[in-house]
Amino acid sequence: MPIPAILIVDLEINPASSGKDFPIFKLGAYRPDMDSGYEKSFRSEQGFLKALHEMKHLADGAKWLMGHNIIEHDLVYLKKHAPNLSWHSLPTIDTLQLSPIAFPQNPYHRLIKNHKIISSEINSPLADCQACWTLFHDQCTAFSKMKLERPEEFSVYETLFGPLPYLNVNSDGIVIANSVEPQRPKQLIQAIWQMLHDKDNIEDKENLKVCRTRFLRLMKHDIHDHTIYPSLAYALSWLGVSGGNSVLAPWVRKQFPDTARLISELRDHDCGDDQCSYCQGILNPDAQLKRYFKLPSFRNVKGFEGGQRAVVESGMKGMHTLAVLPTGGGKSLCYQLPAINRYFRNGGLTVVVSPLQSLMKDQLDGLVRKGITCAATLNGMIEVVERAEILDKIALGDIGILFIAPEQFRNESFISAIRNRQINGWVFDEAHCLSKWGHDFRPDYLYAVKFIAKHSQQSGSTAPVSCFTATAKPDVLADITTQFRDQAGIEFRQFIGDNERDNLFYDVQEVSEGDKKQRIDELLHRELDHQNGGAVVFVGRRASAETYAEYLKKAGWACEHFHAGLEHNSKSDIQDRFIKGDLRIIVATNAFGMGVDKPDVRLVVHAEITGSLENYLQEAGRAGRDQTDAKCVLLYDGNDVDTQFGISKISQIELRDLKSVWKKIGYLNEAANGKNGCGKIVATGGEILRDTDKYMSFDSDDRQADTKVKTALAWLERAGMLQRTENQTRIFPARSGRLDLQQALHLIEAGNFSQRIRDIYSLIAQIVFDSPDDRPLSTDDLIQATGCSFTELRGHLKKLEELGILTNDTMMTIILRTDNTKPSEKQLLKLLTWEEKLWKVLKDEIPHADQGEWQNLSLTAVCDKMREADLETNPADIKLMMQSLADDKSARKETRTGSFQLLDGGNNLLKVRFKDRSDSWESVQETAELRRKAAACLLSFLITKTNGVRQKDVTVETRMGELVEQLAEDVELSVQISPKLREPLLRQALLFMHKQGIIKLNHGMTILRHAMTIIPDKNAIEARRQYLKEDFKPLEEFYGERRFQVHVMQEYALRALERLSDGLNLMSDYFRLEERIFKRKWFRGRQEELKESASPQTLREITGTLNEMQKSVVVDQSGTNRLVLAGPGSGKTRVIVHRVAYLLRVMHIPASAIIVLTFNRFAAQEVKRRLYALVGSLAAAVTVMTYDGMAMRLLGVRFGSRNRPHDDGEDVVENQFREWCKQATALLKDGLDTDAEDDEARDRIMAGFRYILVDEYQDITEEHYNLVSALAGRKKNSEEEKLTILAVGDDDQNIYAFNGTSNEYIHRFQTDYEVDSPDYLTFNYRSTQHIISAANCVIRGMPDRLKVQHPITIDPDRKTQPDGGAWEGQDPERQGRVRIIALPFVSDPYVRRNIQAQAVIAELDRLKQYGTIEWDDIAVLSHDNVTLTPLQAWCRERSVPYFYSREKGDRIKLRHTREFLRLVDALKNLDRNLLSTESFVALVGKQTEKSGEKWSDWFNCLAQDFIRDHVRPSENEESEKEAQHSVASLINWLYEYVGDESETRAEGMFLGTAHSSKGLEFKHVFILDDSWQKGEDEERRLFYVAMTRAIETLTIIQNTPGHVWVNQLPPDTERTELTFSPIPALNTQYTTLSIYRDLDLDFIVRKTDENEAKTRLRIAADLKKDDPLQIRHLPDGRCEFLSNGTPIARTSSRCPSIPRNAIAHASAFTVRYRDDVKEPFTKSIPNKIGNKLLEKWPLVIPTLVIPPGKDHSMEPPERR
Q1: Side-chain half-sphere of 739: how many Cα atoms within 13 Å?
Q2: 1266 CB-contact burial (10 Å; exposed 0-12 / middle 13-18 / buried 19+)
Q3: End-to-end CA distance of the chain
Q4: Do the strands 734-735 and 722-732 form a parallel or antiparallel pair, or are they unpaired?
Q5: What is the distance between the alpha carbons of residues 536 and 575, in angstroms, rounded to a whole number?
Q6: d(CA 859, CA 865)
Q7: pLDDT, tens digit, 9 for 90 and up, residues 20-58
Q8: C-alpha dihedral over 273, 275, 276, 278, to 10 degrees?
Q9: What are 1142-1159's pLDDT values in tens digits?
Q10: How many other C-beta atoms lie within 10 A of the C-beta of residue 1155?
Q11: What does the CA dihedral 710, 716, 717, 720 come to, rounded to 10 degrees?
């Protein structure tokens, strides 16, 4: 074949080169007739000219100059830099400009991608030249075929475009004419007329593909304008293949703009002529509705004229459209029909932005059911192989409607795919998401508007924007229109309909949580028993969906749960069964249920209230979509409202979050662009959070952390401080399928790495190999786990790849069915059998499809033919098969086209033609056969990976490389397919099986870095601008709107419960009225209520019982520190508890962010119990501890095995606590008092804490004050780093000065925490007016009081009651007054105590005559314990229940008790490491049995407190499986629970010191006279505390004339004088021996034989509290205590002698550890008892009962 003398030239250009740099860096040339080429690189113009000279031999003799895009690209540079070349005079052939005429259908040619040529080598101009020659030859072949088969068409193109090269069929050579004889206008018009006839329209052969009126004008006028001829040629070429998936090349639009204009004028404008069949058909909404949706007419819509038709017509005309139509009112059709129509008209793409994946799938499935196959969805859930195919189809024009999430606008692959497409429209489904006032606003929607504006600017035209919603209020619509007007210059044509649907009937029923299941069952029977159809029950959580569905199944309903956690096949089966009617009920989570599209849903039940009326209507709108009547029922429980407020709060960010993110952006900018630079930053959400989250309201573990960071960036962008552009996703090597974790760790261990690097590599390997097969792993996760920076991590991953632990291959998971019902293997075999027969049927039914003309294929006829071959199929099966066949791509050549083009003709009719006219039946069948073989090969391999498991969903992990290897190892396929084409064939086979439902392609384990591109504003950086409160206001307004929406939803429910019509009127007004008017109408006078994120019921529970001052403290949202000075009985603890409750339930602060510090463990437990009663399980995670307990937690220490200062006494323990407080403070203050910029220690420890509440602040010591200061971050410079502190105390009750407490710290608080003035709580809710007045008189003389101007008064509600309370009327003698019982002075302390006890007893007896008094109501208080001993004796004698508070030094720490340590040991001895809550409580129960009745209350209380502390939050999305606790965590909880406390208070009369009564209250209080003579300030406060414990009566015993405080009581204090004689029985002593002073600690095991030791230990172990003991007096004065004749305890030499008439019983038991025994005493203790090491032994503590008599007393002389 003679080859023409053509010089083909290609230049490589650097478009980014500056003016100084030479832009051309490579030259290539090729002469096909000489088969000779040239290529040269250079850096300068001189090198370029030299290269031109060197290739001169190729230019010599050339007749034509050729290149791809040579006219607009290469020649421009050649003429500029080498203007004198002789080539410039040669005729030029541009293969780019020939392509749209030679190959009008996209892809234009296998060697063209976009407008660039594809060669075998990258950046090789010579290879490009050779590819250009191949392309030119193919073009000549195509023109030759056109000239032979369609000569008139060929002649038209030559007339319009110029000479077309072609192959001469006779000479087999290429003919390139220099000129042609143009057709005369009449001939040209006639030929064009024939070309524009719609030959594909079987019914009407005379139909034109264009508007007849515009065509006539074209032929009459435009045909004479020769300047438009090339454009007209391109327009005619494209029109020849129009009607779907062909794309007009973007470069044609740019270089020949008249082409797009002509196409638009010919196809997009309705001429209005009834005779124009094109306009009456294609541009007629009614005709298009019938064509695509098979519907007879459009629906009417309340609110505007024209209904759906008007909206569709607006869309078809390309107008910007804003429409509000009710849910289920057909809004989807209003944008789908214009999109399909315009795709047919011009091949353009409509992008539909949708907020939910379930909605996208619903829309897509609906279109597929209607036979519309030009739609696809693109979101993060789509697997990589399928995603690649969709992106390919978008670029090729096969997709006309694309559903995306707004996040895709930042995705580079999406941007690239649509770059060369004409955009027909941007559609926002659920457009309320665009508005910050919308209930579902998402920040990425803001960027979507910017993207559209930018795209319009770049393309030179604005595609029509359409916004659709069912639930938009006037404020939302105004916000949407303003956004588009301001940012894109768009004005909408608006169609505002009514949101009501006549066929839906709403109802609200109040039902408690426990009754909801039964009520749903009743509703289902009521609505479904008498009619067909189904029901959807909406719930908020997956666990709820499962439990409700299980209940309904047991009730006999065909029901399943439906949520995102279901496996793929299960999900599909449930949806299919529900739509078919096999299932009648689906219980679905809210978002997922939105994807269920079943026309005959007769009932929608909301088991829980939604977050807005908008959401409620959206979800209720699933009902009655067939326009038949349906019911929508909301089950209302007030608690659900607070759940919604909580859900809303969880997703919110705070001002400090934005400040922190902006600060981190500054650091990242400096790192990337230098100290004074400003430029692009590429970072992930996790990288921004790294070292930042400790300053934020959420941390990197938060499930919504990434979303919150992006939200922060969006609002920073809105404030003009930065721009966020496209995302940059990078895929890193993932785990190797050839290794397991152990092999990977072995490779790391064998490497020559430092220990640190080895540890990091091992950790990365463990995370990677343990990651789920079907989920990507973020680099953020690895960064967080390893502590590395991204740069360091990148290096580590590269090294692990070099080791072979990671591999650069695409991982994927594939879901198979291996059950006996529909196993994948069986399904494939059936489909392959069908397909082989189908090919034969197709060749018979549509034999001419290969000629490029549409052929009608009756699916019913195909099914008949299949049945003749005993293959049972239906039209839907055949259609799905044809759709898969249409996507088959040749595995023989590098082409990007498929086999068939399909159009759905309706009524089981498909229109079919070959995509590529060069294909034949043989070639497409060969393609299909290769794909079938590949599918069989791959599926067989995948099944082997299931290991024989038989079930509906089996997931296997594989790699692309592994699957390619399978094809390479197949005997046939390895020969038939070249190595480089195996992967395309593999993808084709996988997609075929995926689309046919044989397998489900899923994500694989991939390591991804999803990074964002952020550009800080230069001015903001230079000015060091901060994000301020003013910037935050728009976000506050947005959150306020969300809060308002919940209030509206609640108001609707409450109004509808009272009267349904009121609820419906509210609903109507909500969508009709402006918000301010709506609020005025429905919330008049309730504006303050709308500011709270809680229901009125919850607010009443938390604040309803508080007085105004208490309430002002509790509801404070200012974030300022507060000091509350509160009198006795004024509700100090109440304020703390209710403040925490307010933080939790109203402000929705995480429980983990709150610390409550108390003075002792009892107070801590009381706070926790009261809090639990108020807020339930929310209280579990609140940290409530003593100061010392907090210090221990910070340091990670506890009084456990080695921290038992038994024989060193209480002082050592106190000193230890002080030391720990100091250490904890130092740990927190690390860097605070230095110039260090960061306080890393505190930030790490305190991350997440935000509020500190301190109870009994007056009892704080220097060490505690410093600890609180460090916890609160008092010295931090940044307000965001400080905690908000609330301190509550009473300077009048500071009674622990001996421990170092001082009111000085209250004064310092005001200065240190910037409190201008304390809050005063002075209403006493406890005591009677008489008691209050008496106490005020005592404390009034206290110098430097802080409450001098704020006296304690009775609470307002009791001011009108008698001053003596109820006893004023009950007791005629005292009349409720404070009574002083004056006794004669006696110097003998025994007598003094004795007669005081009798005075108390006598007064008690007297009071009991006038009212019922329980023993628990009584407290007898003294200065010293010893004064109480006669009353103890009286209680014992009379069997009166009592609690005797021992001296501090005689108390046994709970952590030292045998009973407590038995529980700890029981945990340690378990054979498992995890216990459920139930198992732990059972273990506690067993200890109760061992320990006896006296301990039962304490253990029961412990068990209940544990359950309370470990209750599972109701919002938990996890399964209902009971939580498991590790043994270590249980032991730690136990030690924290008991802390440093001793005995717990028992029931009965309280006998204790004034100190021990702190924080308690009793109806009847007696204060004994002892040691009150000093008159010191501390004693005044102590006496005041004792007085203010009294609720109803206060009796003061006076035994000394100089009683300082009695003399200060008011004059009206009632006084009586009594005399008593001593009663000997009251002098009986009950003395518990002191551990440290009185007992021989090691006696039970010292110097005894093994059997004796065993016996002693066994007997001691069996003893219980109050068991009798025998006393044996030893010659040396000591005593032994025996049980059943066996000695188990002995007194020490320091113990005072025990009277001979004393009797003893076991009082308590503690444990002695070998580690506590000092040398040399350990030598006398055996190492083992039997085979068991002797590590500890019990210590029995006896109590002595000593009858009266001075000689028999064990009381120390100083106490007598």
Answers
A1: 23
A2: buried
A3: 134
A4: unpaired
A5: 12
A6: 10
A7: 789 999 999 999 999 999 999 999 999 999 999 999 999
A8: 130
A9: 999 999 998 888 999 998
A10: 23
A11: -170
Complete DSSP assignment for 1439-1498: T--EEE---GGGPPPGGGBHHHHHHHHHHHT-S-SEEEHHHHHHHHHHHHHHH-HHHHHH
Q: Which two three-digit tokens encode residue 212?
A: 């007849």
Q: Of the candidates 98, 73, 99, 95, which has an alpha carbon nearest to the alpha carbon of residue 6?
A: 95
CB neighbours of residue 144 within 10 Å: 19
Write out the two tokens for 32: 């096909």
Distant-in-sequence, close-in-space partners of 992: CB < 8 Å, separation ≥ 6? 884, 887, 888, 931, 935
Compare 250 and 943 and report the one with higher pLDDT.
Answer: 943
DSSP string covering 921-948, please?
HHHHHHHHHHHHHHHHHHHHHHHHTTTT
What is the pLDDT confidence band of residue 1235, given thresholds at 50, 70 and 90?
very low
Amino acid letter for position 698: F
Report residue 465 as tokens. 């924007």
Q: Give the distance from CA 1748 to its chain's centroid.
A: 72
**How many Å apart are CA 1487 and CA 1505, to the nearest integer?**
16
Cis before 1372 (ω within 30): no
- For residues 1538 and 1161, is the Cβ–Cβ distance under 8 A? yes
Going by C-alpha positions, the residue among 164, 138, 133, 168 that lies closest to residue 58 is 133
Over residues 1026-1050, the pLDDT tens digits come to 999 899 998 998 899 999 999 999 9
User: What's the confidence (pLDDT) of residue 1239?
Assistant: 47
Highest-confidence segment of 1015-1019, 1200-1204, 1490-1494? 1015-1019
Query: In whole angstroms, what is the distance from residue 1747 CA to residue 1760 CA?
Result: 16
What is residue 1233's predicted lDDT score, i.e. its pLDDT?
Answer: 46
Structure confidence at residue 146 (pLDDT): 92
C-alpha 837 chain-centroid distance? 51
1642: pLDDT strictly greater than 60: yes
Q: Could you give the CA distance from residue 1107 to residue 1124 in angstroms, rounded to a whole number?
A: 14
DSSP assignment, residue 847? T
Do residues 1010 and 729 touch, judged by C-beta distance below 8 A? yes
Whether residue 671 contacts residue 1130, with contact meaning beta carbons closer than 8 Å, is answered with no
CA distance 710 to 1113: 35
- Rounded distance between C-alpha atoms, residue 1259 and residue 729, angstroms: 57
Cα–Cα distance measured from residue 1560 to residue 628, given in angstroms and rounded to the nearest whole number: 67
Output b/e per residue, 1367-1385; b: 16+ Cβ within 10 A: bbebbeebbbbbbbbbbee
Spatial neighbors of 931 by CB under 8 A, at least 6 apart, are 888, 891, 985, 988, 989, 992
- Report d(CA 575, CA 1022) in Å as an integer: 57
Strands (E), 1079-1170: 1122-1126, 1154-1158
Spatial separation of the C-alpha atoms in residues 1626 and 1431, rounded to whole Å: 7
Distances (CA, A) of 210 to 203, 248, 271, 280, 912: 17, 16, 11, 11, 22
Report how far residue 1389's alpha carbon sits from residue 681's, in angstroms, rounded to the nearest whole number: 83
Close Cβ partners of 1489 (under 8 Å, ≥ 6 residues apart): none
1207 compared with 615, residue with greater pLDDT: 615
Residues 233, 238, 239, 243, Cα dihedral to 10°: 180
User: Which pair of tokens denotes residue 1689?
Assistant: 């305890």
Q: Compute CA distances 339 → 245, 315, 1632, whole Å.
A: 13, 8, 92
Cα(156)–Cα(508) distance, rounded to whole angstroms? Answer: 71
Amino acid making up residue 1214: E
Helix (H) or strand (E) holding 64: strand 64-67
Which residues make Cβ contacts (< 8 Å) with residue 845, sequence separation at least 6? Answer: 855, 857, 858, 861, 862, 865
